[in-house]
Amino acid sequence: QVQVVESGGGLVQPGGSLRLSCATSGRTGSTYTTGWFRRAPGKERESVATITWTGSITYYPDSVKGRFTISRDNAENTVYLQMNSLKAEDTAVYYCAVRLYGEPDFRFWGQGTQVTVSS
């Protein structure tokens, strides 16, 4: 089984920064993709960014490009999402998920961490 645990959420003022962490353990092997997703109140869940085991990165919403940075530490099986210049519209529950090599979907999900951007 695979365990995924997010941390690092909280309350931050507009313009502030947060770094989310996603720790993965269990039978993942070394070749897996990690993704960050978010669900804002009243909205559908959306993809934020993904990173493969080789470090290939994709950012999805134009609104986070240039402000969010995804990175991974393979030795620690941890993926980070550095979020800068946060805006009220970034308020959401942020989820981390893992897609194993050869599988089409993100099958293993964390419990989510709340990010609230408010003055």
By DSSP, the count of extended strands is 11
What average pLDDT do the residues reach?
94
SS field, number of helical segments: 0
Low-confidence stretches: none
Based on CA atoms alone, the radius of gyration comes out at 14 Å
**Spatial shape:** globular
How far apart the termini lie comes to 40 Å
Structural class: mainly beta
Order of helices and strands: EEEEEEEEEEE
- Report the sheet with the most strands, covering strand number, pairing sense and barrel closure: 7 strands, mixed
Beta fraction: over 45%
Please estimate the helix content.
Answer: under 10%
Summarize the structure.
By secondary structure, the chain is mainly β.
Explain the layout of strands and helices.
Blueprint: E1 2-7, E2 10-12, E3 18-26, E4 32-39, E5 46-51, E6 57-59, E7 68-73, E8 78-83, E9 92-100, E10 108-109, E11 113-117
Parallel strand pairs: 2-11
Antiparallel strand pairs: 1-3, 3-8, 4-5, 4-9, 5-6, 7-8, 9-10, 9-11
Describe the structure.
The N and C termini lie far apart (40 Å). The strands form two sheets. Strands 2, 4, 5, 6, 9, 10 and 11 form a seven-stranded mixed beta sheet that branches. A four-stranded antiparallel beta sheet has the order 1-3-8-7, with no helix packed on it. Strand 7 and strand 8 form a beta hairpin. It is built from no helices and eleven strands.
